[in-house]
Amino acid sequence: MQIKKILFCDNSLRDLINFRGDVINSYAVDGFEVVLVAPLNCDYHPQYSNIRHIPIELNRSGMNPLKELAYLRTLYRIYKKENPDYIFHYTIKPNIYGSFAARFCKIPSTAMIAGLGYVFNKNGLGSLIARCLYRFAMRFPEHVFVLNRYNFDVILAKRIATKQQLILLSGGEGINLETYK
């Protein structure tokens, strides 16, 4: 039996581990090879031998077009080399650039929009560009997960994703409620 490979891409390794660690570990326990792609911003030692971390450079709030293209190229190269069976993207830059890279590599993916944040709440040029990029990039994931009805409605109304793509995780995304009461 071939082991399947799942890749998780986020803008913070610490947040990926803190908020999605149980989901990541459950894939590892089920025999999946798990690859985490995120900046190294914490001391992390995987619980299981089938979990690996690939550190990357990312300025979470930067808007330099050359650095954004470099991030896209980095993700593309990682995805091409790793060739996972599926990719989960979290937060704005991985959602946008990761969805592009996954599409270029013909790898199915899901984008998780935990909150709408400044991109949808501000009206500056940077937010406008980000919304346009989001709208274009969200054509590519198989699914777009959201955590509440408000986000679902806004994303649908602004045509960021289609109703067929959108999945409302009204019960949450699997965060350990014993740890985060």
Please write out the topology.
Blueprint: E1 5-9, H1 13-29, E2 33-38, E3 51-55, H2 65-82, E4 86-90, H3 92-105, E5 109-113, H4 117-121, H5 125-137, E6 143-146, H6 149-157, E7 166-168
Parallel strand pairs: 1-2, 1-4, 2-3, 4-5, 5-6, 6-7
Number of domains: 1
CATH top level?
A: Alpha Beta
| Share in helix | 40-55%
Radius of gyration: 16 Å
Average pLDDT figure: 90
Description:
- With 181 residues, the chain is α/β, with parallel strands linked by helices.
- It has one domain: Rossmann fold (3-Layer(aba) Sandwich), CATH 3.40.50.2000.
- The chain is 42% helix and 18% strand.
- The protein has six helices and seven strands.
- Strands 3-2-1-4-5-6-7 form a seven-stranded parallel β-sheet, sandwiched between helices.
- Helix 3 runs parallel beside helix 5.
- The termini are far apart.
Provide a quick synopsis of the model:
This protein is of the alpha/beta class and 181 residues long. It has helices spanning 13-29, 65-82, 92-105, 117-121, 125-137, 149-157, and strands spanning 5-9, 33-38, 51-55, 86-90, 109-113, 143-146, 166-168. Strands 3-2-1-4-5-6-7 form a 7-stranded parallel β-sheet, with helices on both faces.
Question: Could you name the key traits of this structure?
Answer:
42% helix; alpha/beta; single chain; 181 residues; Rossmann fold; seven-stranded parallel β-sheet; 7 strands
